[in-house]
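Please fill in the sequence for the structure shown.

STRUCTURE ENCODING:
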């Protein structure tokens, strides 16, 4: 039996050899650039690098300084607020739109294109559009006041207490269409017999979605959650286009903090420390997802 299995192992190694050779450049890119760059960033976050990187280690000094900086604390608070609300509203609105589209409505392709179109725009364009829409002089506030409601006030980008919600509105407008498409793909993968059985048993539609369909779509929800969460950690373009971090530092986010310290303040050590904390946040998201998706599948 062993004599028959041993010769087969080299054949497994050389199977699809051309595709494996073709994937070598991408694998080298991933290992050398992404993994190497990550290690390089983490190592230099423990140094006193300023304008240029240098191996002058200072231990955890950069991290202590980072967490003692009010601007970093504000950026973390903004990211937490924006992230939680973005996850909740993106998943909720996206699923509701997908459920509506799944009812085989007329002009489904047209509506799907309309909802997905904002995702095709860059964050800079989206930010500039919503900066205009939310401008109190000629945006929503101006239009409503011109209709006679002179006491109406809606200027989130100019109010430090609610500016992060103005950024959230633009993000939801752009990203909800993608969530809708992912959810719709998951709904279209549900066996039609399940819907028929639920109707025969007299189960209300909302209970069918809540107790049958949503649990069956767990992989779709997990994947969508990871996509949204990774985008939340990296948010930068919208903030720069809409507010540039203002008023003051009221709408600052970690990615902008990193950029400013590395390219304007010329403090590479501090920028590396902040980017390492962002990397840690992404790892906290990716590692549990990989374990749930691949570890659980392997055990099964």
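FILLED IN BY: designer on duty
SEQUENCE:
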């Amino acid at each position: 039996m062993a004599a028959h299995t041993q010769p087969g192992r080299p054949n497994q190694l050389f199977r699809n050899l051309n595709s494996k050779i073709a994937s070598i450049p991408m694998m080298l890119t991933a290992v050398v650039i992404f993994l190497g760059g990550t290690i390089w960033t983490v190592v230099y976050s423990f140094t006193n690098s300023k304008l240029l990187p240098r191996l002058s280690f200072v231990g955890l000094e950069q991290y202590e300084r980072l967490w003692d900086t009010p601007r970093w604390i504000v950026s973390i608070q903004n990211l937490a607020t924006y992230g939680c609300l973005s996850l909740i509203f993106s998943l909720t609105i996206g699923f509701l739109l997908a459920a509506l589209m799944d009812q085989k409505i007329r002009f489904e392709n047209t509506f799907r294109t309309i909802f997905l179109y904002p995702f095709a725009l860059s964050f800079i364009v989206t930010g500039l559009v919503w900066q205009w829409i939310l401008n109190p002089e000629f945006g929503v506030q101006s239009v409503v006041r011109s209709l006679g409601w002179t006491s109406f006030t809606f200027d989130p980008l100019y109010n430090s207490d609610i500016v992060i919600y103005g950024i959230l509105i633009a993000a939801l407008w752009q990203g909800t269409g993608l969530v809708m498409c992912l959810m719709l793909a998951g709904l279209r993968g549900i066996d039609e017999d399940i819907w028929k059985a639920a109707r025969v048993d007299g189960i209300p539609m909302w209970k069918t979605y809540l107790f049958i369909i949503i649990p069956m779509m767990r992989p779709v929800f997990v994947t969508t959650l990871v996509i949204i969460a990774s985008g939340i950690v990296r948010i930068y373009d919208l903030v720069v286009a809409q507010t540039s971090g203002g008023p003051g530092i009221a709408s600052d986010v970690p990615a902008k903090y990193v950029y400013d310290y590395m390219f304007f303040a010329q403090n590479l050590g501090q920028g590396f420390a902040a980017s390492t904390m962002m990397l840690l946040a992404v790892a906290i998201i990716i590692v549990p997802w990989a374990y749930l998706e691949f570890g659980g599948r392997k055990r099964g």
